[in-house]
DNA sequence: TAAGGCACTTGCCATAGGACAAGTTCTGGC
DNA sequence: GCCAGAACTTGTCCTATGGCAAGTGCCTTA
């Protein structure tokens, strides 16, 4: 028992080994293939996923109907549409696999049970979500204050897996540049 | 009893009148003056505030040391540094009053008690935070896909109080433009 | 193995918004 | 009421990035 991904994801000082085992028991592992859809816009999320290996992309549509990549989820990360799952409303984001991989799935009801039964798990959830909020706000600042080149270089440094495995056009919309520009940035970086 | 701000802020279908009264009892009202500091970067938040009247600004510093306005908090909204309060770490944001006003304050410990004693309050908190996350992500998309003029017009439409009461330079950094440009945008709009 | 079609690159020009600097107006003490 | 400094406007010029269109290379499928 005790797959290391659970220790990596559910990391909170007050979560004991027994808790982690109960948590793991509520998850179910499965393999997935490139192109597989995890959640479609318009559906209400009833579960979330831990990604053990592989890479997922999430995207929404802007007012003109263009796909905007909102994020990537890689190994040891949680793939979740928080707003849909916790407010029980249709998702505006889509989640799709960019590669084959392995993930663990947990149903909302099972999550709720853990959430109410294990206080440390509840605290973990709040801390995790507050961290996500922090990251989202930081991303906002970066978008407003850093040049496209700097944003790309930072992504390369912080999440090389994405740059290696995701196609250019998705990285471009994620960074808020056209793929033309990103192509030029790559060329320039490669000096 | 039952100040309407509590009904407005703590809005959740399962929060009953008795709950709201217990919640209100844990808050303390106070008046504040323009320029008053609610939380300074580097401090760890030990409380949060409901703003009954008035307007607050939050800001952080970018890598060059420039002030970047990260948000405004107006009437019937919560002023909180989520990451600092729930992860017990120093804030990177500052919160300061742009106007005089009235607010209610609650200490973290009192909040924790409500959070553990009232399940509906706990659910409310999770839904509230997931909504904040949703808003932050939406803001990201807007920043990447909308022109400065459109961003300003939307702000004007969605939160006129800010445009009326906050100085131009703060609105400018919030929207990610220079104050020179915002001044020109305003002129152009006024056609 | 040919054909169509993505994904990406490259060139050329256009434009939103930035940088800087010189006003002008507003505002809060005194 | 007066003054200093802040807040805002405006002019001129500049740069990063977008828009469009024409490649090039690669991968899939028949």
TrEMBL record, chains A, B:
SMART domains noted in UniProt: cNMP
PROSITE patterns membership: CNMP_BINDING_3 (PS50042)
UniProt-listed Pfam families: cNMP_binding
Alphabetical list of SUPFAM superfamilies matching this protein: cAMP-binding domain-like
Domain Cyclic nucleotide-binding: 32-114
The name this protein goes by in its record: Crp/Fnr family transcriptional regulator
Lineage, uppermost ranks: Bacteria, Pseudomonadati, Bacteroidota, Flavobacteriia, Flavobacteriales
